[in-house]
Design goal:
With 339 residues, this protein is α/β, with parallel strands linked by helices. It folds into 2 domains: 175 residues, Medium-chain alcohol dehydrogenases, catalytic domain (Quinone Oxidoreductase, Chain A, domain 1, Alpha-Beta Complex); 137 residues, Alpha-Beta Complex (Quinone Oxidoreductase, Chain A, domain 1), CATH 3.90.180. Helix content is 27%, strand content 27%. The chain is globular and about 60 Å long. The N and C termini lie close together (9 Å).
Length: 339
């Protein structure tokens, strides 16, 4: 099979296209013929060597395709079925899994990060991670949805407790999770504020954000303060990290919640604790989602109530170009590769 693989950690130039043996499914597993797979920032971190991943490695957490073969013990699937992959991997035995909180599993992993992923013609995944894909949903859109929509759903709805009528600010609004978050926030009945760069302001507004700030032109925390009548937003959804941290805290209303799902610009942020306790702020971490949350948000995608944003759709041979485009921050939405 053809695969986008790397044998050492480094820049995008380590990614190459090679012919590799097609994997075989083991007990409880399924072999999926990949029709489309989408990039995420985790693919950049893995390629750089964070966390340490076994080599050689094939990335790709977001996968849509067709069941090609079944391993022993799998009886609830059939070859030829259209499926989308839940990228979360869990043990099913620990206290968190038994509570239905799979993303808190003591052995939690992600397809394409801790295992071989979908940037190949075939991939092996647990059969339990396959979710039926309706005929009306295209593979490209299905591949662009899972990781970003499940992350945004858990972060905003479950962890962030977003309610109708609240104000929410989404930073890094051109990214995949952020484009999903804007739609989910609107779906929840919130008023949406967003931060992006000049070229994406109008596209973010078209997604449903009522207030869109060009971070290169304005102090968005100050502008949010003005646009909310000196109140601030109820919830702020961020993965940028250090570069936005102080502004994020300033933009929150009293009793506001800052939901953190990443740290793209660095993990060590300086915090004035007086702002936290005096304004009674909450800082909430979130990662991926439970199985139930995944299924809930994917059904909304399948019904067209939420729509994945596609940046470009390229052949697998352009995997290196895809890494470079994402690394430069040139994308708006998801970059999809077709094997």
């Amino acid at each position: 099979m053809r695969a986008a693989v790397f044998y050492e950690f480094g820049g995008a130039d380590v990614v190459c296209i090679e012919d590799l043996p097609t994997p075989e499914p083991g007990p409880g597993e399924a072999l999926v013929q990949v029709k489309a797979a989408a990039l995420n920032h985790v693919d950049l971190w893995v390629r750089r060597g964070l966390p340490k991943t076994s080599l050689p490695h094939i990335g790709g957490a977001d996968i849509a395709g067709v069941v090609a073969a079944l391993g022993p013990g799998v009886s609830n699937l059939r070859p030829g079925a259209r499926v989308v992959v839940n990228p979360s991997l869990w043990c099913g035995r620990c206290e968190w899994c038994l509570r239905g909180e799979e993303s808190l599993c003591v052995d939690y992993r992600i397809v394409g990060e801790h295992t071989q992923g979908g940037f190949a013609e075939y991939v092996v995944v647990p059969a339990a991670n396959l979710y039926p894909l309706p005929d009306a949903v295209e593979y490209d859109a299905a591949a662009a949805a899972p990781l970003v929509f499940l992350t945004a759903w858990r972060g905003l709805i479950t962890r962030g407790r977003l309610r109708a009528g609240e104000d929410v600010l989404v930073t890094g609004a051109s990214g995949g999770v952020s484009t999903a978050a804007i739609q989910i926030a609107r779906h929840a009945g919130a008023r949406v504020f967003a931060v992006t760069t000049t070229e994406n302001v109008e596209r973010v507004r078209q997604l449903g954000a009522q207030f869109v700030y060009d971070r290169t032109a304005v102090d968005y925390a100050r502008q949010v303060w003005a646009d909310t009548a000196k109140r601030g937003v109820d919830l702020l959804f961020d993965s940028v990290g250090v570069a936005t941290w102080k502004s994020n805290l300033r933009a929150l209303a009293r009793g506001g919640r800052l939901v953190v799902y990443g740290a793209t610009t660095g993990p060590l942020a300086e915090t004035d604790l007086r702002r936290i306790f005096w304004n009674q702020l909450e800082i909430i971490g979130t990662t991926m989602s439970s199985r139930a949350e995944f299924e809930t948000v994917m059904e909304l995608v399948f019904r067209g109530e939420l729509r994945p944003v596609l940046d470009v759709v390229w052949p697998l041979e352009r995997a290196r170009d895809a890494h470079e485009r994402l690394e430069r921050g040139e994308q708006f939405g998801k970059i999809v590769l077709r094997p």
